[in-house]
Write a structure and sequence with these properties.
Keywords: Cell membrane, Membrane, Protein transport, Translocation, Transmembrane, Transmembrane helix, Transport. One of its GO terms (biological process) is protein transport. Pfam families: SecD_1st (PF21760), SecDF_P1_head (PF22599). InterPro entries: SecD/SecF_arch_bac, SecD_1st, SecDF_P1_head. It is built from 6 helices and 15 strands. The chain is an alpha+beta fold. It has a 4-stranded antiparallel beta sheet. The longest helix is centred in the N-terminal third of the chain and has 24 residues. It is flat. The C terminus is likely disordered.
Length: 247
């Protein structure tokens, strides 16, 4: 996803290149300085190394370690949240080494249900929030459900899934002119048409991004988004950015 974003960004300045994974080969090596500036603007945490006519891209060590820790912490939260649904007490979920999570469930002999639950693919979905709810008692449970975020805040969310996570073609973290991160996203062609209609009809209204029935963020639709691409800005944490980036 980052490779595609870099290639598209370079093309906006007529810089032609061949991008494969973390290696960018420039058609014209004289474009190196200009390309470096553009790539660093996408994410200042990228480390660039020149080799002949190619640019080798990697994350700076401190950012890579931070990202790994953030993703691991969020993964542990997701696993814990799934296991809590079973009502099992004394569940222990903790990081083991660099890339493993240790799950301990004392007293459980049949682990099939637990393995099945943890093996399910996480479900990312986009919903409209119901702004017509004044009191919890007013909720029409056939159309609306109360969902919580990781801090326990509740939101009235329409049950209808407007767009599924499988329609998300690209999601990446970018940094604005003030250095604040935003999540740039892109839907596929079918979802883009659907999203254009939704944003036209709901300017000024909240649009919820939900992962496994937990609210990640509820940004406000500021304007119609007609090309299926947009940015989410706000006070959501790096955990939430990482969640979106990896779906």
């Amino acid at each position: 996803m980052l490779a595609n974003e870099i290639k598209e960004t370079l093309l906006t300045k007529n810089i032609e290149s061949n991008v494969q994974n973390s290696v960018i080969t420039l058609n014209n090596i004289d474009d190196y300085k200009k390309a470096s500036v553009l790539i660093n603007a996408i994410n200042p945490n990228l480390e660039l190394n020149r080799k002949d006519s190619s640019i080798l891209i990697s994350y700076k060590p401190h950012y890579k370690n931070s990202l790994i820790s953030e993703v691991a912490a969020e993964s542990i939260n997701n696993v814990q949240r799934r296991l809590d649904k079973l009502g099992t007490k004394e569940v222990s979920v903790q990081k083991q080494g660099q890339n493993k999570i240790l799950v301990q469930v004392p007293g459980v002999e049949d682990t099939k249900q637990i393995k099945s639950l943890l093996g399910k693919t996480a479900k990312l979905a986009f919903h409209l929030a119901n702004t017509n709810i004044a009191k919890v008692q007013d909720i029409d449970h056939e159309t609306t459900v109360m969902l919580k975020d990781s801090l326990g805040n509740s939101y009235p969310i329409f049950r209808k899934t407007e767009i599924g996570g499988d329609s998300l073609v690209n999601a990446s973290v970018r940094f604005g002119h003030l250095g604040k991160p935003t999540v740039h996203f892109k839907f596929d062609s079918i979802a883009s048409k659907r999203f254009a209609k939704i944003t036209k009809e709901n300017v000024g209204k909240p649009f919820a991004i939900v992962l496994d029935n937990t609210v990640l963020t509820v940004p406000t639709i500021r304007e119609p988004i007609l090309n299926g691409e947009g940015e989410i800005s706000g006070n959501f944490t790096e955990n939430k950015q990482a969640n979106l980036q990896y779906f």
